[in-house]
């Protein structure tokens, strides 16, 4: 395997990590209006991700940096052509992060409700727009001979891309609801399980439609295999949740999201940015990559630091592995 190919799959692995980890963060944020019946409930929900949400977001920073360093042409085309959509994602992430920190700074319920709403919106928008962005990358966008995007913003909101957006929105929402059931106890846990039963049915239908469309229009045999894994894991997660097996449900949802992301990347390979108007204008791993020297330095750096990041994140999850309950929140208030 040559270095450009290696770094294509490293970028894929980084986005798998980001969507799996920040995906349930988004889902928990979106679940606030459905599972949080009072302020204590909402504090329980936020506390389930309190120790890890900011750590989970670092994966997208690393993924973006990896694209910038390993595939500068891809980075330039992607971040210029999708500038408005990516700016909305960035602003939503900022609003969400600020809301986590500011909602408890004043005692008024109206103050907290406003920040809870911003957490919900700041979770839903990225969940939707990441799917729209990746669906457009797989489908291809119009590029000129210099690899500049020549379409408009609304051209990105085509049926296939919107279906991709609703797929990631529902996958992350379901993933987050399963995580709430795993990390809480009592009535909230039961409400999360019931909500998971309802939403997973819709998620299966929407995700299956998107994956079938992807495989038929853009996929390969390997992409079809990953899509099949995603479908089986999603159905298995829904069944596990219905039976009260939260750990299995959450794990299988993580497998679903990972397999779905790999379906998209295997559908792309060896292209990183297809040109829908002229295949000659497409960006591939060869014409978009950095020099061999740059990729070599990056590979040694990743070999040293990536295991350290994984070890630290694993330690964090292990440290905060216990369930969060209303009694913990109520006791902390006194």
Walk me through this protein's architecture.
It is built from 12 helices and 2 strands, in the order H-H-H-H-H-H-H-H-H-H-E-E-H-H. It has helices at residues 3-35, 39-49, 53-70, 72-81, 83-102, 109-139, 159-183, 186-218, 221-242, 246-268, 292-319, 326-332; strands at residues 271-273, 283-284. Helix content is 78%, strand content 1%. It has 334 residues and is an all-alpha fold. It is globular, with a radius of gyration of 20 Å. The model has no long low-confidence stretch (mean pLDDT 92). The relative contact order is 0.15. It has one domain (3-332). It has a two-stranded antiparallel sheet.
Annotation keywords:
1% strand, globular, 334 residues
Largest sheet: 2 strands, antiparallel
In which range does the helix fraction lie? over 70%
Gross morphology is globular
What's the rounded overall pLDDT mean?
A: 92
Domain count, please report it: 1
H/E element string? HHHHHHHHHHEEHH
Any idea what the radius of gyration is? Answer: 20 Å
Distance between the termini: 59 Å
Strand line-up of the largest beta sheet: 1-2
Membrane topology: Multi-pass membrane protein
GO molecular function: electron transfer activity; metal ion binding; oxidoreductase activity, acting on diphenols and related substances as donors, oxygen as acceptor
InterPro entries: Cyt-d_oxidase_su2
Pfam family, one: Cyt_bd_oxida_II
